[in-house]
Amino acid sequence: MSVGGYALFVDAKDGLASFYEHFGFKPLIDDPNTLVMPIAAMPKFPD
Question: What is the average pLDDT value for the chain, to the nearest integer?
Fold first, then answer.
């Protein structure tokens, strides 16, 4: 089974968005507590 996608979204608790920004997530303009990271920008995981 496989699944497709283009980004990973995070719904941060109030005041915790900076935690995710530290890992490269970018906040949405109209909702700074929703952050996104494109899958192409994610680090590679070891096999």
Answer: 90
